[in-house]
């Protein structure tokens, strides 16, 4: 059950924009241009749950944005339309307002359903067809311990900050029920000794920090989870002694490996605190996750992540031209516009717009010429 489209009218940066999503959708662009806006629209949908009403809640467990006046496009504030639309394979849903009367009656922080579909259908979509993981850019770094989860979207829920990752990993070791069922699933790391997903999580983490292993543990009576890490010298140490990149990335790798076919994984800034090689390998795992029939949506500033995705595409025998695309978000003439760049079967892109991951080339030219080129 894939998300096919996100339709936004006067929602935050966008006056009118449709995103036709692929199995892998990559949002990139400069700061504060609206890269995360489509992701926020999805998070609003998922956090609303629809247990007691058909309304979208713009503040909840995943994102907190404010009031309706904060999300209505400021440049088009006099327009009496605000719409968040989400299309699945067999259903299209819209929330917001389309008339002055509906706008006057709108709640401060909720959006009403404005088409005729029953909210029970929405509830069915959420509860019976897929699981989500959403990791925000504001994730937890290394800490001595984390509280155990008290409520979760599902049993493998990692938390928006990755705060429940250690708890989930400890359960994977203890129960050993999470395994790769498809022999063609390329997320199983070549160095993994078994089909247990935990083993591949650890193997992919070794692409980022070679030789390091993890020992996740929980103490139920104390309501805590904690992780010790063993570096190549064999001496166990606390997470806080290993560095930010390892902890920031552990939840990302776990989310990508644990997802099953039909699930949705949304990750903001997966590259945070990672060196270039780690970012590249993370990009490869992202593409392999999409090949495993998981819908992956990421927001990134990293050309290394993008090139890792492109490289995995080039090396794959199963890639199709519609598997992955890049949404390059930019601000032009005080409006947010989007260039759509499908990633070809050979990792190629149809064009390279100005401002699209071109800073390294500009800097090299400046170094060679001795003249600043911007």
TrEMBL record:
Residue ranges occupied by any Endonuclease GajA/Old nuclease/RecF-like AAA domain in the UniProt entry: 1-136, 202-305
Bilayer-crossing regions: none
Domain DUF3696: 325-364
Gene3D superfamilies in the cross-refs: P-loop containing nucleotide triphosphate hydrolases
Coiled-coil segments: none
UniProt cross-references to Pfam families, sorted A to Z: AAA_15, DUF3696
InterPro entries on file: AAA_GajA/Old/RecF-like, Bact_Antivir_Def_Nuclease, DUF3696, P-loop_NTPase, P-loop_UCP034888
Domain of life: Bacteria
Protein name, as recorded: DUF3696 domain-containing protein
């Amino acid at each position: 059950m894939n998300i096919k489209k996100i339709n936004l009218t006067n929602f935050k940066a966008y006056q009118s924009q449709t995103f036709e999503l692929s199995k892998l959708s990559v949002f990139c662009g400069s700061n504060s241009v609206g890269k995360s806006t489509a992701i926020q629209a999805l998070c609003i949908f998922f956090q609303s749950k629809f247990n007691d009403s058909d309304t979208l809640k713009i503040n909840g467990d995943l994102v907190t944005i404010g009031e309706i006046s904060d999300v209505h496009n400021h440049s088009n504030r006099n327009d009496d339309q605000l719409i968040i639309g989400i299309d699945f394979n067999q259903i299209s849903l819209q929330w917001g307002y389309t008339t002055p009367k509906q706008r006057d009656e709108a709640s401060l922080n909720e959006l009403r359903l404005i088409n005729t579909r029953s909210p029970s259908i929405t509830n069915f979509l959420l509860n019976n067809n897929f699981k989500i993981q959403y990791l925000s850019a504001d994730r937890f770094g290394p800490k001595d311990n984390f509280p155990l989860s008290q409520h979760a979207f599902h049993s493998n829920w990692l938390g928006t900050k990755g705060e429940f990752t250690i708890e989930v990993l400890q359960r994977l070791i203890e129960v050993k029920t999470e395994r790769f069922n498809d022999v063609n699933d390329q997320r199983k790391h070549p160095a993994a000794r078994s089909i247990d997903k935990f083993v591949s999580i650890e193997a992919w983490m070794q692409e980022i920090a070679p030789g390091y292993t993890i020992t996740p543990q929980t103490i139920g009576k104390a309501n805590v989870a904690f992780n010790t890490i063993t570096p190549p010298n064999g001496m166990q140490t606390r997470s806080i002694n290993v560095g930010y990149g390892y902890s920031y990335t552990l939840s990302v790798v776990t989310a990508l490996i644990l997802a099953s076919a039909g699930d949705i994984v949304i990750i903001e800034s997966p590259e945070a605190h990672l060196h270039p090689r780690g970012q590249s390998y993370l990009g490869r795992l992202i593409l392999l996750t999409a090949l495993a029939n998981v819908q992956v949506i990421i927001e990134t500033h990293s050309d290394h992540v993008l090139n890792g995705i492109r490289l995995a595409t080039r090396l794959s025998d199963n890639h199709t031209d519609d598997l992955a695309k890049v949404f390059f978000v930019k601000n032009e003439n005080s409006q947010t516009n989007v260039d759509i760049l499908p990633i070809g079967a050979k990792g190629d892109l149809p064009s390279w717009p100005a401002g699209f991951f071109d800073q390294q080339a500009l800097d090299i030219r400046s170094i060679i010429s001795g003249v600043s080129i911007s």
